Each structure stands twice: as structure tokens, then as C-alpha cells.
Amino acid sequence: MNLISSLVVLKQVLRDYNGKAVDLSQDFTVAASNVITTLTFGKSYDKSSVELQNLQDCLNKIVSLWGSPWISTLTDTHVHMTTVDLLIGGTETTAALLNWTVAFLLHRPEVQNKVYEELCGVLDVRYPQYSDRHRLPYLCALISEMLRLRPVAPLAVPHRAIRNSSIAGHFIPKNTIIIPNLYGAHHDPEVWDDPYSFKPERFLEGGGGSLRALIPFGGGARLCLGEAIAKMEIFLFTAYLLQDFQFLPASVAGVVLKVKPYTVIAHPREHSITPMLMGFF
Q1: Do residues 32 and 89 touch, judged by C-beta distance below 8 A?
Q2: 59-113 per-position pLDDT tens digit
Q3: 233, 32 in Cβ contact below 8 A?
Q4: Which domains does the chain have, with CATH numbers?
Q5: At CA 174, angle to CA 168 and CA 175, rounded to 5?
């Protein structure tokens, strides 16, 4: 199942809810999981799959144990850990960002409408391709603002200093473990105007936002391994969903750092577009 196929399945799942208020977090997780499991295992699953549930339970258990003393005994020869990194990094992160995006848009319907109007105006009666991102500045601004405001990995993957060094006059001894604080960098008032407010417009031309200062995939030479596919996933998932559905609040819910379970109505929009199963670049 390629990325577009996974999107088609997700959209049908949302349509099958027939306007009911539902929690979409599991559906987002399954859709993101299928993109990664297809790459790693050559398999895809539906939400009722026992095998998928066991896999997610396993990943959740691994995440809960992260930082335990025995983790440090693992070596580079444990190839399976690379697969685990890919699964965790490529599944939970994308699903979490989709959840955050819908949650914020429920509180800012005018932003949702602007994205929809841009999609209709630029694409007319076809679905977006990844190459369309340069023609959809407001959608890209929304995604950038979500990555800034709610980085899915607030503290990035630890790095190790391989030699004595210094940063801004601070001595960093060799072998020091360095953990980039992405959340802090994205909410620094010296860099971002009104950093705790949701303002996609900051990333439009003249909006004052800096893509150079946006580092959701980490910093340094060793960035997130899945950055390229993550950017494609996030762009296409967001574009397809906002083109086909209007997300409406089912109840009043607060938005906090960790998304609490919430329900949403995915109301299908009235247009007919035939999805492309291939050629999404």
C-alpha cells in the first residue's frame, strides 16, 4: 500500500462514519502505520487487525521503557532497533501532528476555510501532488506553524560530542550527551513574535517567521532519518483531508501540550475528484 492508497483508505473510513462525532486518533495512527509497515514489511493492516494492535502495544511498551539503564547495553549490531526507530518515528509522529492539526483547526475554522479555498483555487478538480507544495503557500504555512507550535519530539534525539568543543562560549567536553530542546527553540520570544499563539500567517511572505529557525526534525549533521518521507506524508495527508472534509467540533475541548482524547465530525465536502494511486510527486 503506497502513500496515496493509504490516504484513499483513510478517507473512506472517515466517510463511513456518516457525520458521527468520533475520535480519529486511532485512524490517523493506522494510516501512518501502513505507510511505514509497507516500507519495512511490505504489509498493510486495517484498524481491526490483531497483528497491528500487537505491534502498536509493543511499540508503546518500548517507548515507555526508553531511558531504562539496560537500553545503553544495546549496540549497533541490533539491526532490529533500526526498524523500531523507523516504526516509532514514522508512525507516532505523523499521527500526533495530524491530531494536533485537527484540534487547532476546530478552534480556528477560518484557517481551515482558507486552506480549502486555496486548494480549490489552485488545484481546481484534482487532488494535490507533493510537487504542488510551492503553489500552496497557506497550506505550507499551516504545516510549518504546527511543526513549530507542537513539535512532535519536543526534545530531539540525543547527540554525543565526538571532540571538545564550545557553543556560544560554553565549553562542551568530549563525549557530552547533548539533547536539543526543539520546543524551547520554537517558542523563543527573541526569535518568534508571540511564540505561543497559533499564527500560520507568520510563515507567509512578510509574516516574520523564519524557516531557518524552524527545526522540527532536529539539528546538526544527523537530522531525522525519515525527514523526507515525513514531510511528504504530512503535506499529502493534510491536503487530502482538508480538501475532502470539513472538521467540525463535537463539543468544547481545551487544547493542551498533550492532546487529550477528543471527538470530531469529518463532514465530506461536495465535490468529485478521482484520486491518483500513483504519481504523487
Answers
A1: no
A2: 666 666 655 665 555 554 554 555 566 566 667 788 889 999 999 999 999 999 9
A3: yes
A4: 3-68+77-268 (1.10.630.10)
A5: 115
Q: What nine digits make up the cell of 192?
A: 518568534
The C-alpha R_g of the chain, in whole angstroms, comes to: 20
Amino acid letter for position 255: V
d(CA 149, CA 191): 13
Task: State the residue for C-alpha cell 532536529.
Answer: 218
Q: What is the pTM of this model?
A: 0.80
- Inter-residue contact 161 to 190 (CB < 8 Å): no
Residue type present at position 139:
L
Count the residues in the chain.
281
Residue in 213, 209, 272, 226 with CA at minimum distance from that of residue 82: 226
The C-alpha atoms of residue 227 and residue 220 are separated, in whole angstroms, by 13
Please check whether residue 62 is in contact with residue 84, taking contact to mean a CB–CB distance below 8 angstroms: yes
Whether the Cβ atoms of residue 123 and residue 275 lie closer than 8 Å to each other: no
The answer to whether 120 is annotated as binding is no
Bridge-partner residues for 167, per DSSP?
Answer: 170
Q: Give per-residue pLDDT as tens, 142-161.
A: 999 999 999 988 888 788 89
Helices then strands, counting H and E runs in the chain, come out as 8, 6
